[in-house]
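Budget justification note: compute hours in this period were largely spent on complex prediction jobs such as the one shown. Inputs:
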Amino acid sequence: MSDLNTAMIERYRTNFLKEVEANVEEGEWVKMCMQCGVCSGSCPLGKFWAHPPQEIFMMIRAGKREEVLSSDSMWMCTSCYNCIVRCPRELPITHIMHGLASYAKRLGLVAANQPTAKFAQLFWNNLMKKGRVNELKLGLALYFMNGFGEGIKIALKKQKLGMNMMKTGRMNPMEILGGHAVKDLSGFQKVIQKAQELEDARIAKHGA
Amino acid sequence: MAVDKKFAGYLCTGCGIGERLDAKQLTMVATREGKMASCKSHPMLCSAEGVQLIRDDVAAGNATHVMIAACSRRAKMEAFNFTDIAMSRANLREGVIWLRPEGDEHQETTQEMADDYVRMACAEVRFMTVPSGSGEQSLNRNLLVVGNGVTAMASALEAAKAGYGVHLVCDEGVLGGVYKDLYKRVPFRAAPPGVSNARTAPLPQPEEPGIAEMIAEVQANPRISVHLNAKVTKTSGAPGRFSADISTESGGTVTENIGAIVQATDYKPYDAKRLPEFAYGKTPDVVTNFEMEKLAKAANGGPLKRPSDGKEVKAVAFIQCAGQRSEQEGHLPYCSGFCCTESIKQAMYFKAQNPDCDATVLFDDLRTPGAAGEDFYRAGQQAQVTFSKGKASEVVVEGGKLTVKFKDLILNEDTAMECDLVVLATGQVPNTGPDPYAQLAVDEAPTEEEKEAARRALAVAPPSILNLDYRQGTDLPQLKHGFVDSHFICFPYETRRTGIYAAGPVRRPMDMKQAIDDAAGATLKAIQAAENAALGAGAHPRVGDLSYPTFRKEGCTQCKRCTVECPFGAINEDEQKYPQFNEARCRRCGTCMGACPVRVISFENYSIETVGQQIKAVDVPDEFSEKPRLLVLACENDAYPALDMAAQAGGSTISPFARVIPVRCLGSVNLNWITDALNSGYDGIILMGCRRDDDYQCHFVRGSKMAAERLSKVGDTLQQLRLETERVVVYEVAITDVQRVPLLINDMAATVEKIGMSPFKF
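Corresponding output:
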């Protein structure tokens, strides 16, 4: 259990709803849910979730901290925005789901092999280097996400696809050598740095 | 009187009547067979010129009884509005040409249909007299309002604003009723338009209750006399001339003359002692929503403390639907409709005082009726009240801690929460007098078990509130769960006692704001009743009708059926045991007329004869003509308009052998008409009335039920006559059954074709 998690448990004790309000992006909205269930019914992947959004909101109010934060439900969200469009109370449900995922990660509560979490990290790392996603490298990183042997297997399986993409000019093999960056890379990095500062300040305000 | 009758017929040939039908033939039928002294035609009788034609004849003294053959009696009512003459209408437009297909092959039967309608209208008008009203009373601009609470006060204030005097009878020492301990009230208005759904949107908050201001306003109003600690010990008379004895606790009695009455006695809080599972009575820390208001009022914005040890409440649970919406013995089966918003409000008391206090509302369905409802729910959520969809099963008391056990209905698990205080959202029990038909229910219960249940209900009946000096009991009749009978959609406020209106939670559960609005509605109805009574005119639904029932005393056998069956308790008994009609209490439905076995009851313009003669006037061809005759007696409130609308909509056709007669209510149908019709060779009879029983739509409440009861015995008559029982059918018809009504008539035509013609044709 991370130190941060322990600190948070100590700080909010029984009131998980307040913890969510303070620490989760758009968490202040959770209390406005009226439990109609339209979000759960609208979610195209809802049946694969352990807890659809309606239940997640109910669990937050019922103080089920561990169950919510270690759940993989919010990682299942594909950002289709159906729930936001349909919510009669206009809750930004998709954003809350990502906020919960992000908070769970900060607290170190995400399961070790959560694939969406892993992919998100690879995507972020890739993006940060050049300010744009290097698809060749990201693809390869995904192939080898679960070890070298598996990576080779997948690569061989996808060989034909790769060749076709190269033939039609959809993928440039030269991108493996560093790849091209956005026009103003240092500007991009400044933007990210500023955003990180703002986020750190926000988190610091709530003591985490 | 009879010697003065001057009959005149008028035929309109407009709207296609002239093209589709043989006008010459119709004129001949009216004069030769219908015995009209004349029958004038006009191409558009409802035009100013056409109406003038009739008026001129009336003015010249040539017409006192007028037969108009044109459109339905429900059309062009403004044009054909003659108050000083008797009038009948033959329905040739909606009744004939619009319900019959064109074409030569149909012409003969369609014309015969029209001829019959003219014969019928002539026969009807010959037996009518001009209604003149009884002139029994003058205008009495005083209302009696019974009740202690906001509903009664609102009613009194509304009446005073309309210029009426009010006697407000309150059986307690102070006004205010169930809401006198209110700390704050649920807001009356929703957020203004344009307020967003944002979580920080400014939403309506709990308001000052306003009860003290209302009491002051009532007491300061010169038109309102408040009678405190008082009861109505006797009410007699009729709308426009009620006499009420108001007795105070100290023993004094005053008698007041009253035009109409509003009963606004609100409700009694449900007795939470019936909820031992929630530990009510075991610890003072389990309170009802009513007791919670007292706690909040005592704290007056300071820390809310629990009753047992004065400790500040840190966690409170609200159990919704406590003893409500449950079929369990001793519980209320209905939703009281005010407790959800009350609990939201009370949870906000805790949050306003201490935002760290956990306030949890355990609900099954959160229902927030009223203008502010949904916005107020959001206001509660903004204040971080926790709303959990869960069903509480038990409250456990252990060492000063309360544990509420409940099933979380979203997460589908049994769970529990600890708290310092539990508030039970208990419901409303209507504060009504004894059901006047409770004794009748005992007498008429079909099984011994039901008889016993009815007896138990009678034994625990509450004391009377109105003490009506009516043959049919002391108080307003009830429909379900002890609420005063008052049709919730079509005619709210109306009760089964004319001139007495129910306002507020006595007629259905409701919150304070709705009760105040309800008071305005009921008060206006009461004022209408008083004003109509002064004119000798009927109240809803035959507003303005001047006719009223009279009876031929020498023929009366004192069987008392009319006094028992009148849905409105209008008929008392005089010293000689004869019925005594109170015309102002009468709604003109004719249920008494339908009930009378010796046919001595009649109205001036509606009687056994006016309908009976129409039945006889129809030309019944012989058995071998292949032209059967179907009699349709259709309620003028729903079935007849539905048939008119089917005609107006087009596309429907009915059998040319049907002859439709509108009746005021199926309750006015006398079995004599049925036997007469069968004896004179009708092949099928269809009776169309409104829906009856608990979810009735009958405008006279019990009329269609009475008719159904009487007609259940018509099978015996048919068997005696050796006729097939399928020849008489009774249908419940709603005004929306536009497509169904023609089909029902055609069904009977098919039945007659199958079983054959009646052998009773001469």
